């Protein structure tokens, strides 16, 4: 069975909707700015990638909006767009034919912040009943499954920033075991005071106050990342089931996936990148390819000299110095945890369809010591197979190979980036 991605839904600092996100990414529009949700006067990190103009009422039923956190609202919006894009209505299929498998890195932060404040200011009776479910890592998966009436195998993958790719790997597994369609990917909303404090404790956030200096993957001036909200949800379907319902050709196939762990440190990745390289090699092998078949790498791009050097070492070990074009558009959005790797997968699919490698975000002065062919301006070329990589705090490594489908006709709005 072949897993085909037929729908893309994006809610990101670069825009709501795949078309707007792709346009802003190609244009290199920086979406990082000072945090607006609360006063950051007492915080070392004051920048983030934030979504503007999000209309909750347009995407989430009122009853559910009061029961759920912002990260779930974003998942509802992205999932709805993915289903619409694919022309797929779960209610028109057997309930067991559709699954929801998402990645998560932090859960419902804003909702939890509000309830903690109520607890300490007014006592335990002020805490709402929905606190027990709104913050939970599986909240978005569960709420989407309930809302759409899906009863196929559901789950949540929690591996920090690697989780979005892991969800797509597990979606492929579910397809191979007989599920017809899976909503996969992830969203995040980690910009509440407590959430920012927890992220700062990891010691990996940038303290820059100028957005242009905030998050600079593979740049000589890299000094940490800035957080961000949003992500992407993709509809992954069995190719035969798509044909049976006369669905769209899709954006690409999930060709190969692998995950490894460094077993190095509870917080830091291994400096040698050996297990990271192993995940890449396994994903390429499982796709039935060799490294020279890969036309583009959409890299993790941690934005710290030590982490970027380790990633560069892993990529050189697999592809050789300057062996493959490498990009990291997420410098424009901030690091979205699970939502970031899901968004990168969506970006890779859009790149394959357009035949354009998007530029690395906020990259002004690439460090030549990395030995990478870092893409700084849009580069046109056929993209038949692309690699998306991600790392999670504590040593998680994930790699996903996507393969292109035949191009759509000129009358297809998606082919025009719409």
Give the arrangement of secondary structure elements.
Layout lengths: L2 E10 L2 E2 L1 H10 L4 E3 L12 E3 L6 H4 L2 H4 L4 H17 L11 E6 L5 H14 L8 H4 L4 H10 L6 E3 L5 H14 L4 E8 L4 H9 L28 E9 H6 L7 E10 L12 H13 L9 E3 L6 H15 L5 E3 L10 H17 L1 E2 L15 E2 L4 E2 L4 E8 L3 E9 L14
Number of DSSP helical runs: 13
Fraction in beta strands? 15-25%
The largest sheet, given as strand count, sense and whether it forms a barrel, is: 12 strands, mixed
Q: In angstroms, what is the radius of gyration? A: 20 Å
| Portion of residues within helices | 25-40%
Unreliable segments of 5+ consecutive residues: 408-418
Number of strands: 16
Mean pLDDT: 94
